Amino acid sequence: MNATPVELGEVDPLFSWHVNILQLRRKHIIFVNDSSRLCLIIDGIRVGSQLGKLQERFKADLKEYLLLEGVRRSKIDQYFFETGEIRIGKTNNKSVLGIMNEMSYYCIDMEFNHTFDLSAQLNSMIYKPIDYEEPINVFKKALEAKYF
Predict the structure, then answer these.
(1) Which end of the chain has less Cβ packing within 10 Å, N or C?
(2) CA–CA separation, 4 vs 79, rounded Å?
(3) What is the rounded distance in angstroms from the CA atom of residue 37 to the CA atom of residue 132?
(4) 3-31: per-residue pLDDT in tens?
């Protein structure tokens, strides 16, 4: 994605996201959370030249998407307060990469009007690495446990 990776060290999986390009009718970008496998798909960003814009768009879209999914604004605000600066690093987490590839495969034939619709469909599917639960429910439970 034309970004220079930095050494990340230990990162809480709730705050760690994998990112990749997803080619549907046009290029989209898929984000997958390491802890919950929650995904967010966005479009309208050229990857190489608009990396800063991508980070801001990710934050804005994730906030909006979580609100649509019924997450309380106070929990979302606390999550982003604790998230801090966005840093980009390399990964070798085969489980997350596998789920990302699986989601990419499911997307090929899905019809959607907005990327939030596509994200919601993928987040309502069950996946083995999260004990056959839906990513949106796993993410909500994690926020509830962290920010009771």
Answers:
(1) C
(2) 25
(3) 11
(4) 555 555 678 889 988 888 888 877 888 99
Which of 115, 108, 109 minimizes the C-alpha distance to 41? Answer: 115
Q: Which two tokens stand for residue 65?
A: 């998407």
Closest CA to 91 of 29, 11, 22: 11
Report the mean per-residue pLDDT for the chain: 86
Q: Which of 90, 84, 103 is nearest to 32 (CA)?
A: 103
* Separation of first and last alpha carbons in the chain: 36
| 84 CA to centre of own chain | 16
Following DSSP, what letter does each residue of the chain receive, concatenated?
---------S--GGG-EEEEEEESSSEEEEEEETTT--EEEEES--TTT-HHHHHHHHHHHHHHHHHHTT--HHHHHHHHHHH-S--------HHHHHHHHHHHHHHTT---SSHHHHHHHHHTS-BGGGTTB-HHHHHHHHHHHH--
Q: What is the 3-state secondary structure (H, E, C) of 49-92?
A: CCHHHHHHHHHHHHHHHHHHCCCCHHHHHHHHHHHCCCCCCCCC
Reference 118, options 132, 107, 134; nearest CA is 107
